[in-house]
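Quick question about two entries, pasted in order.
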Amino acid sequence: MATSQEKLAQSLEVLKGFQNKQGIAIIKVEAISRVHKDRLFKNGFIKKVMKGWYISSNPEERKGDTTTWYTAYWQFCEVYLNDRFGKEWCTSPEQSISIHGGNWTIPEQLIIRSKKASNKKTDLMYNTSLYAVNLSMPEETNIIEKSGIQLFSLPSALIACTPSYFAQKPMDARIALSTVQDASDILATLLEGGNSTVAGRLAGAFRNIGNERIADDIIKTMKSAGYDVRENDPFENKMQFSFTNRTVSPYVNRIKVMWQQMREPVLKHFPQPPGIPKDKAGYMKLVEENYKSDAYHSLSIEGYKVTTELIERVRGGNWNPESNEKNKQAKDELAARGYYLAFEAVIKSIEKVFSGENPGKVTYDDHGDWYREMFSSSVTSGLIQRADLAGYRNSQVFISNSNHIPMSSEGVRDAMPTLFELLKNENDPSVRSVLGHFVFVYMHPYIDGNGRMARFLMNVMLASGGYPWTIIPVERRKEYMSALENASVKQNIEDFVKFIAKLVSEEMK
């Protein structure tokens, strides 16, 4: 007779068959036997999303941790909505624009259009929901698919969205508008529908972001076709700079817009920079004394993936849902060693800044060295793959308990040079410090260690203004994470600025 461990291993084999390439399993209850479902649920390998639907989960995940759900969210929506509506569904025009602008933040409620919908709300996990409304969908040619999610095409979404969207989501709207290369696609729909009011609104929106050519094309073409068009700007304020039509990636413009919009709060709340210290040796001595301070563990984690190795460990009775303390201790020791080596590399970067080199250029040149030092010991010990030292990540990452989903690996490669360009060109050290830290974490360019890397970057930039090395206390982790979440999801940087400014001010006393 099979042992309980052998039976669980059999169920894990079934679960493994449901996994997609990200290691996430989306399971409709009819597709799995009740025996396997109950066994997997009891041992914490699956979670219930709603009646009749489950997702794979990590049995070691703490109660209330939303990471598994947020990791699976968009894949779940794809599978569930395709099962319910076939391909006859799409997100609302407003949500479509946000996604076109590179914003995959988990919404509290995702609005879906479908002629098969019954105008009902479907509750999901952790206060998220779907609301499927019975509304007309765009023509098939105006529906596109991104990562499995059906969207209005950008031109059709811009035409169909509510006027209030531009004021409510100005960053997403501007980023999406900035990716439009020519007015022709938008004009074809505007002319066909006789949308003179919408034409005036879109002309004003394009002019707001500095795209005079598209704005003029819309107005002139509509008037030539006999429509009375009155231009109006749907945004509540003007942009401080214009986008370039050469930029294809929405992520590049997103970073630029965030930097521009978030500079003022930093300048408002941060103490004045003391300037490069005359006693550089004394400053460096104080920095050296901080090396023992532990950096936060990585914020970046992925879903719990069922592997053949795990199945065999379960089958052999060698799996325990409790953490392996010996292995954890070894990882902690290697992390401490890697932190020290990276810290020493950061000190060399500060010395370069003190010698007169541009701080943005120094971090651009050196941040890869910090990362390699941080994880070289873990590679040698076989805890992480050698390929992880190659550079920026090649897969999606997720942040524990955060609605913010970092940009794709392709987006990272587009946007990281933009971050360093902004750092090089920024004259104020407080802006470099706060926004350098925030934007780095916002992008999450590495598989692991992003929080530590961001704090190293912050401290090099603080040093460039003569500010003291500043440690973010573990005791204030909740406040720190909340401020970062507010900045990432709502683009409100105020809390994060005040948080860092207070810590720096306390160090300066």
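Here is the second entry:
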Amino acid sequence: MVCEFITGGGLCAAPLPDSLAQEGALMRDALLSDLAQLSYEISTTIDARLAPPQNALCTVVSADDDVWQVWRTQINAADAVWLIAPETDGVLHYLTQIASLQGKLVLGCGLDAIEVTTNKMATFLALTQAKIKTIETLTFEQWQQSAQLNTSTQWLTKPIDGVGCDATLCFDNAENLMHWIVSNKKQRTHIIQPYHAGQPASISCVMHKGKAQVLSCNTQMIDINHHTLSFKGVVVNGMRAHWHAFEQLANQVAATFPDLAGYVGIDVIVDINEDLGRDEIIVVEINPRLTTSYAGLCEATGVNPAELIINTLINPDFKWPTIQQNMVSLYV
């Protein structure tokens, strides 16, 4: 069973933004196509406002349905479950818990890893303890006491359990950020980070038992308009020149969070550091689920990525094949 939260009915009783539906469908359709080539019988759910996808048996979810009960029933009937859901509000954790309690094979991360990586402050602390370079992350209270408060630093604020660029804002100075946080009563729900210039990038990888295999090294296209960050797309393998360094970092992350499993996306910033004589790679966040880059992986790698992921998780004798590093552009 494939459960994609946005297109699968997660917003069945709420407005369905076109951008979210498009991005969700992009990942879902790529995964369903890859799984269909492996001769599995695949089920999924679909929001009644959307056209049903190919390559799966679909259950329609309308505004009157209890989507969580629909998903429980679908999961109960399946042997294995592949979840594509946001970490926000604990949604991914809850779906994973439902599948785990039913004894299903979850083709994704474990509950411990999801719980930590959902929380940006907990992720920051774990990465810092592991001596992995990451962006300083502060609570509102810590930020108020920061020595940097009176500098010309640009600041980002985002929900502590947000996904990607969702609800991420950039402010040119501390005064404007302070006003926004207080007036919108976000002191306890948001974290604050100094804005870090550099090339936004990501690592698509497969993790299992503290080890990582890199699928692609990607360039991210991110705009800042009227203080708001927005994700415009990705060039899969646009950062392939950094493959070795990204591979080392992915394995450090896997060792730090051994419950990460299956597909994992790591958002990073690549910063040209002339003093070091090499580029510096800084972790922004860890995504314990499929990301948009997945949609380009079949073409980028020359192999079926779903097959690689499944074999990594269930076949102890599986040997990772040689994969291609083709560039593929995806726009959302």
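Reply: The chain has a mean pLDDT of 96. The first helix runs from residue 6 to 10. Hope that helps.
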